[in-house]
Design a protein that fits this description.
Two copies of one chain form a homodimer.
Chain A lengths: L1 H22 L4 E2 L4 E2 L2 E7 L9 H13 L5 E6 H7 L4 H9 L4 E7 L2 E4 L14 E10 L8 E9 L3 H16 L2 H7 L3 E2 L9 E2 L1 H20 L3 E2 L5 E3 H6 L2 H5 L4 E5 L2 E5 L4 H8 L11 E10 L15 E11 L4 H18 L5 E6 L9 H17 L5 E3 L9 E7 L5 E10 L1 H5 L4 E2 L5 E2 L2 E10 H11 L13 E5 L5 H13 L4 E3 L6 H10 L4 E5 L1 H6 L2 E5 L4 E5 L1 H12 L1
Helix pairs in contact in A: 1-2, 6-14, 11-12
């Protein structure tokens, strides 16, 4: 089914290209794949496309769809293909890059495209599509390469699916975290630091609560927190392999004519602390946690609020252990991951194990042991999982966690990644009970993944209505007249001294205005105090959804709050 | 007296230069000032000086001192001076830079140096000196300029003062925080990031306790915490003035062919959040706090553990208020500063106000108002202070706090700095009660200053014996035999559940070994459990200094701990 949807969307990309060529014959085609969300096609047009060109292109696509042109696919000799695409340097480059003597050509009517295949039967099946936007891209994603224009869209089998998609998009737009971030005064983004979030006081509170929640669990599980520098020398990143594999995503600076990278990952720092003193088997498992701020380059076109930023904090941990300890450690990590994700309202979690790829390092026995450890850990926690055969990183197998939010979207957050590579590269050692030296296994794991991104997911998941335990302001006291001010202040102090995040509306607005203001701020509990409450020494609790509870004593309120806090 | 000591030390610098010229006649002299700790002279030698050359130089200095040469000072025409120093490009450059037609020349015997004056009578008074070290420096401190060699030393009036100094230095060396940091496993420094500290688990605990202590006070005082990015665009730093005045101490990077600086200060970030929405007089004072990690270039020669690092966290706050609110705000800041410094055992605090310099911006009335606010705030808190006339920054007056540590050394930590400049440059505004627009005053303030540096001061001040409330491990349970293990584990869990940082020695060492290990770690309280304690359900509390308290019940212990925690 997923394969079918891919074929449909890939065919829709061909349909798009076909329409563009009919409307703008001098446009050069490059590539047009299906994506998890839809499809796109990258063009080199003679004049840049604009959003307002999309309706005409969509109209032409529908017209070609109505022709019900059969989609065919055949292999042709490379020379023939070169002749077909002469004058298009991109297609010629693609042809050169394909192995063998022939290449695949997809055709519909007089439109032909270089293609590996996988299509629907005819263009008539492609009516349920929607063009989404025009953006900038680069040939082969290389930002020093030829700039191109990308038209993105999506397609479904039925009109109903398309309508559901549009509804979901509209809802996501309404609860876009960037919009909520502004409305609720949580964070902002500024031209002076594109992709670098600024946390406002309320956003910083939520951020700190996310950190604080995890810190408690880390402490219980005997993790030890460290902090490593933002900048480290090029030589270190060369040794860790990041310089070779990740350089394009790193920022660099120079000190005393020596090159330094701003850290894109926290692992080398943790390794230097591991190596700072001799380690014995008695020290293992050694569990370092770091809330590490990393900086990674992203194209400006793909920056997206806190979802995709250029700086974010990973709730990182690096666990050094013996191969025999691996299973128990993974088990504990899986259990902590579930505890955290459930806490924040994510019940539907999809788990997968990625196994040894072809270009892997390390011997099979070690891989098997590690992969078995991952499997057994998941099994013993009663967690169902999928196997992604051959999809692991070259340095070790991993577990990935995907959560489904309230709008049905999936997000990859946590990972547990076994690593044979870095311990070897950095010659990590521990002394065994026999007095010999052995290499520890290293496990990288994150639960939130990026704290900033998780914050944004939470905001959209809860549609801005953060639950009591993580709301920046949990309770707001609203007096009906100034007569209740003293009562209000006493209540405020009591709530604060119990550790609650409480505030008070000091304005002279009428109670309706105060309620409205608190509701716009998405405060979970409004505590309304009028003449009656003052007289009886009670509190009226008004929930965000309008439900009210009258005549609560302070004790009642504190008991309720204690439950809501958990 | 301080002036006299300066004259003595400046004269000692001349004596040093005189000795060097007699020993190495081709050495070029540059400058040789007195410093708060002693003096130095920067040379361009024909062959680099080494530490082992210092005894011979000192010997020659003593020999010249014995000659009791009178020190004279006179003004000579610049042409005469140019002739005297021909061939020495440094002196010629200095002569060109001096205003007027004449320059001062200091002479002793046949030695002459360019000099503004201020000396002792004759070289015989300069016997109580000590040469300290040889280091690299640059002409005019410009790291792109001519590299020079600096010989540093110190001098006193009497042999007794010199002996006391030597004793203090020996003690400081014994309790050097870099040594303690290693011994107590608190932090480390690595060649992969020179000047960028790595915090080990125990160091991170202390660091977090410092942050946590201040956070509590900030919350009580209605500060709001923010977090701003590490990298911001060059244009912003140009507008803030940092690019012009501070560029040489900043690190830069490039993103999409645009220049960014790694922040050396947190103010511009706070200003962008201030400007994010319209502000009214009702919002003021608006008190933003930020534990902001800053990066600043330091010459590798002056890096000194956590005292002088290239990255550190400022416990920064930026308060935006009306001119009328200034006094009350300053008062609160002074009071919080005292509360924090006293808490950490600093009772002797020297306070000074630096006033309007000649090149100041802003009109006199505003300066007077701000300076008065500073004075009155100190007076109303009953704090004695000195006036440093004309020593303020060009953008506003400031208060500086200097603490004296247990070894008698002074450290400048906190500052409260009024700023008229940034609000103007960034066109900050608030709406007044009358509906007009006005410019807020901005106050920068820090209490610890640099958290890393304060940590190091604490370590040396307490000679590694951090007090109970800030010790990374507060209590360590030591069992005499394995029979007490279960009792020990129960006690450990109880202590942890009360929020104490407790641990247990799980080794099979004899009790004497366990005590020794805990003492090396500087754990304030050892809880010794033997057969008797198990039988009577009691605890023996052994303090770090060896004092013991027997037969404590759990309740006794918890009560004691609660007091020690405060």
């Amino acid at each position: 089914m997923e394969q079918d949807l891919n074929s449909l969307r890939h065919s829709a990309a061909h349909l798009l290209a076909h329409a563009v060529v009919e409307l703008y014959p001098d446009t050069k085609l490059t590539i047009g794949p299906a994506t998890p969300e839809g499809f796109f096609y990258d063009f080199l047009p003679t004049t840049n496309f604009k959003e307002q060109d999309l309706p005409a292109i969509a109209e032409k696509m529908r017209e070609i769809a109505d022709r019900k042109l059969p989609l065919t696919h055949k292999q042709v000799p490379k020379d023939v293909a070169r002749e077909m695409f002469k004058g298009n340097q991109f297609k010629l480059e693609l042809i050169d890059g394909i192995e063998g003597d022939t290449v695949g050509i997809a055709s519909q009517g007089d439109f032909h495209d270089l293609c590996r295949g996988g299509h629907v039967e005819h263009t008539g099946l492609l009516k349920n599509f929607k063009l989404l936007n025009v953006s900038g891209s680069y040939w082969r994603g290389d930002r020093d390469g030829q700039p191109l224009q990308r038209i993105s869209g999506t397609a479904f089998f039925t009109p109903k699916e398309l309508r559901m998609y549009e509804k979901r998009v509209a809802e996501a737009l309404k609860y876009d975290h960037r919009k909520l971030g502004k409305e609720l005064d949580l964070f902002s983004l500024h031209e002076e630091g594109p992709g670098f979030p600024f946390f406002h006081p309320r956003g910083k509170i939520v951020y700190d609560l996310l950190v604080g929640h995890l810190k408690k669990l880390l402490q219980q599980a005997d993790y030890q927190e460290i902090a490593t520098p933002m900048m480290l020398s090029d030589e270190l990143w060369k040794r860790s392999g990041h310089y070779d594999h990740y350089r394009d995503n790193m920022y660099f600076s120079e000190i005393d004519k020596r090159n330094f990278a701003i850290k894109p990952m926290n692992c080398p720092g943790a390794i230097l602390i591991y190596k700072e003193r001799p380690r014995s088997y008695r020290d293992l498992p050694l569990k370092f946690a770091e809330f590490g701020l990393v900086h990674r380059y992203e194209l400006s076109g793909v920056l997206h609020g806190l979802f995709r930023a250029r700086a974010f904090t990973i709730d990182d941990a690096h666990v050094f252990c013996t191969p025999d300890q691996l299973k128990e450690q993974i088990k504990q990590m899986v259990s902590m991951t579930y505890s955290v994700l459930n806490k924040f309202g994510f019940e539907e979690i999809r788990v997968g194990i990625s196994t040894k790829p072809e270009d892997a390092m390390g011997d099979d026995a070690l891989w098997d042991k590690a992969t078995d450890a991952l499997k057994h850990a998941l099994e013993s926690e009663g967690v169902p999982f999928e196997m992604y055969e051959g999809e692991g990183a070259f340095y070790g197998p991993k577990i990935e966690f995907r959560i489904k939010d309230s709008m049905g979207r999936e997000w990859q957050c946590g990972t547990i990644q076994v690593d044979f590579f870095l311990p070897k590269n950095f010659e990590l050692e521990y002394v065994t009970p026999e007095g010999t030296r052995a290499q520890p296994v290293m496990v990288h794991r994150a639960i939130y993944g990026s704290l900033e991104r998780f914050f944004a997911i939470l905001l959209e998941h809860y549609k801005g209505r953060l639950p009591f335990f993580i709301a920046p302001v949990q309770m707001k006291i609203l007096t009906i007249t100034d007569d209740q001010k003293q009562y209000a202040h006493e209540l405020l102090n009591t709530l604060k001294s119990h550790g609650y995040r409480a505030s008070m509306d000091e304005s002279s607005d009428p109670i309706s205005g105060k309620i409205k203001a608190a509701q716009l701020q998405q405060v979970p509990w409004m505590l309304v105090l009028g003449a009656k409450e003052l007289e009886n020494n009670t509190i009226t609790l008004r929930h965000r959804d309008g439900k009210q509870e009258f005549g609560l004593s302070l004790d009642d309120l504190l008991k309720k709050a204690e439950i809501a806090q958990k």
